[in-house]
């Protein structure tokens, strides 16, 4: 059951967790208010019962007083009659006696009119009225005796005295029973008040205990997860990417922090892997480029230098053959054909060198494209780091909003504390009747103070979370700066590759120029061949052409050697 409760708690948002303890306290306060209202209603009912019993007792006392006054008026009437007082005084006493009897009747009517009397009480009232009626009949017979002859008055007065004493005794018995009932009711009321106060205090203590336990459980659960996430953040910041990120499966704000940390960890892992792959690719590309450049340089040196040497040798041979053309015209045609074949071979080799240089240019271009893609990847890494920094900033803003909610709860606790203080003052004014409410107000005040302290602790923890997220943003900024430096280095390498591409293009143009010159040489040799057949003068022209070819061929050889030296120096510097 406890595990299910913790799982349910983990799925709730941080605001919901913060509101659980106040809501529980509010519910318990509502329950206590209900209990208090029930207690007040019971107390009011018991008080009403006591008031009713007191009213009935007073009515009995009034009835006793009225009966005694009527009996006294009867005795005064008899005494005045026996003393032969004037008729005016007798009439006055008679009127007074009639009024007293009427008052007795009204009091008994009032008793009978009370609501909620038990059947025994109603029967008791009926009995007293019956006995009072018997007394009234005796009194009327006494009055008739006085008005007639006065004989038998003594015995009638004795009967009246006895009947009045009996009625008074019945009334006194009823009054004693009423007073006993009132005493029992008051005792029961005091017992109920004591039980209600104990029950109220028990509920209040239970409410405070439950609220404190729930608040402690929530704080402990949340702080423990946050501490583990903070430790994971520190480990990842120190470069330990094997650290496990806990709490990412939680749907609350703590889970959001853990998910953001997991994303940051994965990005750091991807960045490390990308840097390793880029370094390895760069090393392999540089090594392949060096090998390819060395291979091409060697091939180019062999091909071009060989061709140049052949051109120089062929030019020398052409010169020798041209000098002896006049003497050996027949053999000159054959030699001229050999020169033409050598020129064709030279042209083919020059074209081979041109194709090799073009392949070298394409390889350099591919390297430039790879460096361009590397620059694009580093730019994308900068964008991803910026996005992660934005997520952490939004997390910091969410923590700030939670802090505002905590401030609101703190204000509510302060207002509750003020209301409890006012309630304590009002209870003090009420005296003994407000002692129970003063205790409740004091407990509410303590609960409000505890809530204020809890919200202050939560606010401090949220401030620490906000500081940690700020540190994470700073770390991401440093990562972004490092990636930007890598991007700049890649851009420099790309620029160097572009320079190599331009140099290779220049070599290609020079080799193509050599091929063009060799094509021209071939055409010239063909012309010489046909000229040799036609005229000896053509041999002289061939001699001049051969001498003119010798100098460019030597210059081409020197240029090719300088180019090969430059390529190898670049390879040594790159290594």
Structure overview:
The chain has 575 residues and is mostly helical. It has 2 domains: 18-232, A middle domain of Talin 1; 245-574, Orthogonal Bundle (Helix Hairpins). Helices cover 92% and strands 0% of the residues. The chain is built from 9 helices and no strands. The model has no long low-confidence stretch (mean pLDDT 72).
Q: Main β-sheet, in a few words? A: none
- Total number of β-strand segments? 0
Span of the ends, CA to CA = 69 Å
Number of domains: 2
Helix and strand pattern: HHHHHHHHH
What structural class results from the helix and strand content?
mainly alpha
User: What would you call the shape?
Assistant: rod-shaped
Q: And the CATH topology of the largest domain?
A: Helix Hairpins
What name goes with the CATH superfamily of the largest domain? Methyl-accepting chemotaxis protein
Strand content of the residues, in percent? under 5%
Return the CATH architecture of the largest domain: Orthogonal Bundle
